[in-house]
Amino acid sequence: MGMGKDIFEITVNGLKLVVIFLMMVQAVPILVWLERRGSAFIQNRLGPNRVGPLGLMQLLADAVKFLTKENFVPDTAKPLLYYAAPVFALIPGAVAFSAIPMSTPIQIGVFEMFGQSWGPYTFLVQGYDIGVGIVFILGVSSLAAYTLLMAGWGSGNKYSLMGALRASAQTISYELALGLSIVGVIMMYGTFNLTDMTMMQQGPLNFSFMGYTVSSPYLPNWGIFFQPLAALLFFTTTFAESNRLPFDLAEGESELVAGFHTEYGGFKFNMFFIGEYGHMMIASGLMALFFFGGFGIPFVSVVELQEWAAGVTATATGASALVAGLHFLSFMVKFSFFLWVFIWVRWTLPRFRYDQLMDFGWKTLLPWALANTILTAFIIYAASL
Amino acid sequence: MTADAFLFWFLAIVTLVSGLSVILNSNPIYSALCLAMTMVGVSALFVTLNAYFIAGVQLIVYAGAVMVLFVMVIMLFDLKKDLQTFARGMFTGGVKLASVGLIAGLVVGAIKSAELFTEKVADNPVTTGNGMESTKALGQILFTKYIFGFEALGVLLLVIAVGAVALARSKGGTHEQ
After folding, report:
1. Do B68 and A172 touch (CB under 8 A)?
2. pLDDT at position B16, please?
3. Does residue A323 have a pLDDT over 90?
4. Which of A135, A143, A145 is the closest to B53 by Cβ?
5. The pTM is what?
6. What are the b/e assignments for B47-75, b being 16+ CB within 10 Å?
7. Res A371: pLDDT
8. CB-nearest partner of B64 from A136, A153, A175
9. Which of these, A26, A24, A78, A85, lies nearest to A261 by C-alpha position?
10. Is B66 in contact with B39 (CB distance < 8 Å)?
11. Interface-testing mutation among B35, B42, B68, B70, with chain A (most A C-beta atoms within 10 A)
12. Chain B partners of A168 at a C-beta cutoff of 8 Å?
């Protein structure tokens, strides 16, 4: 897993990491706008519509406000933890998001530049490919709870501390159900690699069970038709992992002022915000990859698309770029849909009470996830007979 | 120095320094944070050894476990008297020193007598493949060849869980009045 074999490949791979990070950060203002306008739409209001067309310039005004606010540290805070927490809040989201494959690789043939021959290269449309993508993403994003604890403890405020304790208890409880809910998916596809998993979801619905082959030309071969319960459990637990309503007890305004980020203002608050949206993006990306065919286009397999692109474009490089672009678009449609569901749910459901949250996690989600795992194991064994 | 060697020395130093600060810090909160840092460092070292699955599991299991420790520190320790909580008289100090010596002796003994109990494996499952193959090999070897050790560890964890509940229910704990 190196950066590349010559200076061109290393540069492109390095730039790719920067672009993916910026993509994550830049998506946040758009999502904030969508969230505010969407919530207004759901609640029959207008939302921010004064600054610029459709209120789009509100984002810039907000950014200026965030950056020019007074830097404030409470007297009782522990400065090291207080300042470190928002910085660390960005890291897990960014690192995990870079491991999500967003399209098929772009293959670049041999070409001339600066009087030298370069290539051929293969560039993946993701930050880096780690063989065990799922385990890596889950492991890294589980570190995010530390930032909440650091913020809560470092602020030296009882509301912050209560919020942080709630957040950690919630994360620990729901991580079990989150991990177990995708064990069924991993067993079914037999791989940890997200790209391989996507490749297995191409074409129309097709599977064989106990000697019978079932296929349906009207449904795509997506994971949701094989693991519907896992999809539901996974999506529910990711809401808890990203501290979004109905699981945002860590910042329950009615009882804790603003929870773990009570003492944070300006850009420091904004970094927590970006971290939260980063988790939403990881969850949406994983949802698309596990259960909705990833970057695949429904009913069209990657090979078919490559053959079509080879006929349309002149060079092999152009063909692979066209295929990658179309797959990227397909991924973005699914990705945006799940991001919208996150916003939709936030403005639809009320917050859980704390005991309801714990009961739901331990007595409902965990047993169902376990049952799903065992059932999947039996079915896979029966199908292999 | 190659990039791999640089990475190894960098990660080794980070891991060791944060590991040392776990025991040298008198504030249990910072100790717990440094422990989490140590776990992340060990996980990164596993990545440099191409053991991606173990690296991921190290993050999920151990980093999560340290989080529980962190919460316990906040909820159970009286942080205003943290120094007294850690250094309470000659007798407990002696017990602590003795147990540390015992553990150190066990570790040294295990390393010294490693050749007696284990054989060198040529086809190390962790390094054979990248991702699923090595994970599969690891799972198979864990449930066949090393099944006894695996089950014994499970029993040990059960004993620890029961012990933790028993300790938590007994009066006193760290808040001895």
Report:
1. yes
2. 92
3. no
4. A135
5. 0.82
6. beebbbbbbbbbbbebbbebbeebbebbe
7. 92
8. A175
9. A85
10. yes
11. B70
12. 67, 70-71
Axis-axis angle for helices A144-154, A158-181 (nearest 10)? 170
A168·B70 Cβ contact <8 A = yes
A43: DSSP letter:
T
| A181-A370-A130-A207 Cα dihedral, nearest 10 degrees | -80
State both tokens at B49: 């050894």
Between chains, do B36 and A192 touch, taking CB under 8 Å as contact?
no
Tokens, residue B125: 């499952």
pLDDT in tens, B71-93: 776 766 666 665 565 566 677 77
Size of interface A-B (CB pairs under 8 A): 78
**Residues A82, B39, B98, CA angle at the centre, nearest 5°?**
105
Q: Is the pLDDT of residue A263 over 90?
A: no
Decide: residue A114, CB within 10 A, 0-12 exposed, 13-18 middle, 19+ buried. exposed
DSSP of chain B, one letter per residue?
Answer: --HHHHHHHHHHHHHHHHHHHHHH-SSHHHHHHHHHHHHHHHHHHHHHTT-HHHHHHIIIIIIHHHHHHHHHHHHHS-GGGHHHHH--HHHHHHHHHHHHHHHHHHHHHHHHTHHHH----SS-HHHHSSSHHHHHHHHHHHHTTTHHHHHHHHHHHHHHHHHHHHHHHSS-TT---
Q: How far apart are CA A344 and CA A336, in angstroms?
A: 12
Distance CA B90, CA A259 (A): 42
> Who's near A113: CB < 8 A, 6+ residues apart?
A8
Task: Report A:112-141 residues touching B (Cβ under 8 A).
Answer: 130-132, 135-136, 138-140
Cβ neighbour number for residue A290 with a 10 Å cutoff: 29
C-alpha to C-alpha distance for A93 and A100, rounded to whole angstroms: 11
Is A133 within 8 Å of A194 (Cβ atoms)? yes
| Helical H segments across A44-132, by residue range | 58-68, 79-97
Looking at chain A, which residue has its C-alpha nearest residue B70? A149
Do residues A177 and A199 touch, judged by C-beta distance below 8 A? no
Q: Nearest Cα to B39, choosing from A84, A241, A132, A143?
A: A143
Q: Which two tokens stand for residue A303?
A: 């090979």
pLDDT digits (tens, 9 = 90+) for B2-42: 777 888 889 999 999 999 988 887 777 788 888 888 888 98
Reading the block at residue A97, the tokens are: 């998001």
User: Would you call A56 exposed, middle or buried from its count of C-beta atoms within 10 A (0-12, 13-18, 19+)?
Assistant: middle
Average pLDDT over residues A277-305: 85
